[in-house]
Amino acid sequence: MTDLVIRALDERTAHLFDELPDPLAAREAHRLTRHRPDWKRVALRDGKVVARGAWWGGPDDTAPLNINWFDVAEGEEEAGAELLRTAPWQVELEINLPVGWREDPRLRAAAEARFTAMRKAGHELLVERLLYRWTPEHGLPERPGRLEFRPEPDDAVFFDLLRRIHSATLDAHSLKAIEEGGFDLAAQEELDFFHWCPSPREWWRIAYTPQGEAVGTHIPLHNPSGPCVGFIGVVPEHRGHGYAYDLLAECTHHLVERGAEFVTGATDRGNFPMAANFTKAGYPVVRERLNYQPTGTA
């Protein structure tokens, strides 16, 4: 087998990224994603592209936040691993897969080749997630009308609320942040993400009962790819009443009233209550995502 060449791309060589087959329909999944040419890398053998990766971040970020497009040719798992190992950015890796990929032998084989390459590069699975997309043909979810939604200008109020919500979270990324830095870090990471998104700060809402008790929060956002459900959370003492659905319904209405023609959302596969709320609110699953994190052990 001939030697492998790892190549960083630029505007002149960006076309090389498109020379690899796309069995997992990543191009369609990323039709609204903007990747910078200089954050793309390919591995070549005998002048042929055998692995590729696209790192991604917001328009003002100086370094990528993650890698969300990664492919390897059949039998080239080691080339894919080398592409990841030698990258200047060691960040979380997302693999977005078609719904039902496990049941299709061709899709499963393609996915497993990528998983093998990632493991060889020292990445380990953090969580599996379900990606949702609401569109008008599904109809707007009914508003139960049980809660009052108010804006809140003080970030400290949201910070306290997020700490309380994360004290009983099911979210894998939040649990990782709690392990690394406690509830303060988990809450701050959420706030940092909300502010990173280009949508207006005044959209954020806190939900209250008629008696004035804070139940939770919904955060309607626009990320760089469009309108999304940024966060849904209920404080522990008010769980068990189905309020997460109320928050999701209100968040959807909020975005649609401000011109959204679609709304995306996501939850961990194991978060069965939130998955049920997305289904109830008219959000079908459109992709499945596996999040891998670098361990530095390759």
From TrEMBL:
Originating species: Streptomyces pseudovenezuelae
Keywords: Transferase
Full protein name: GCN5 family acetyltransferase
Domain N-acetyltransferase span(s) in chain numbering: 163-298
InterPro entries: Acyl_CoA_acyltransferase, GNAT_dom
GO function terms (MF aspect): acyltransferase activity, transferring groups other than amino-acyl groups
Tagged with keyword Ion transport: no
PROSITE patterns membership: GNAT
